[in-house]
Amino acid sequence: MKTWLITGASSGLGRLMCETLLARGDRVFASVRDRAVLDGLSAIYGDRLQVTVLDLSMAATIKPTVEAAFAQAGSIDIMVSNAAYGLFGAAEELSDRQIERQIATNLTGSIQLIRAAIPFLRQQGGGRIVQVSSEGGQVAYPDFSLYHATKWGIEGFVEAVRQEVAAFGIDFLLVEPGPTATRFGAGLDIADALPAYRDTAAGKLRAALMSGEFVIKGDAEKCVTAMIAAADAASPPLRLPLGSTAYDNIEAALKMRLHALQAMKAVAYDADRQEG
User: Fold this and answer.
1) ∠ at Cα 112 (109, 99), nearest 5°?
2) Most exposed of 32, 91, 144, 235 (fewest Cβ within 10 Å)?
3) What is the mean pLDDT of residues 202-207?
4) C-alpha–C-alpha distance, residues 198 and 54, integer Å
5) Is residue 11 helix, strand or coil?
6) Beta strand 87-88 with 189-190: parallel, antiparallel or unpaired?
7) Region 163-192: what's the mean pLDDT?
8) Measured between alpha carbons, how far is 96 from 176 in angstroms, rounded to an integer?
9) DSSP characters over 114-182
10) 179: nearest Cα among 158, 149, 209
11) Which residues pair with 132 in a beta bridge?
């Protein structure tokens, strides 16, 4: 039996992960913004499910929540930083408040969650942190600029921190799902449209999304199965792309970036200081 701490467990991948882990006999500490959404699971699994209220946008509440979970659990094998949502709209269309909340939840909140867990994982001799990112941590769509800023940001944070804590037996797994059939779309914070963007790439994607033409290939249950298998593995990969859309988009983006980088090699080398 393993012990997990999972944020954003009220719906989507987080909820499915909780259900799957509890069904196989594990113990789960689940954070949600509304405790009642997990009452049904609590009735079935009793003390193996501990539910706590946490809103990652309220940074001051993160450390006490993590401390309480470790104190009650004794030790936690795997922490899953899953809580996040999408902000949709061209950058000019977004309000300051929307931008602040997106960064506070997806980026600052995830950073503070990881920082709060590290001392406990270090003291217990190791552990694993699963950070749910997105294909949007490697590629970019119009209308998701702030969402991408948070996902590219958290991936950079994890890349650095994993090097800092590897000596303590702490490792990381970055999960990068593509568009998946969850309630992510229903939870989008959508900015009011500006007419100027109607015929741009941003306007066209908005029209496709609102009309239902945007293709979603990912299967949520298959994604959760792959996430748990990777989290259980003795030596998981750093990055786990999920879904053909994620794989194809990330592969194409990396090839384009590598090609563009290689074209700049001479310019880059010419910027070095000359010896002698």
Assistant:
1) 30
2) 235
3) 95
4) 38
5) coil
6) parallel
7) 90
8) 27
9) HHHHHHHHHHTT-EEEEEE--GGGT---TT-HHHHHHHHHHHHHHHHHHHHHGGGTEEEEEEEE-SBSS
10) 209
11) 175
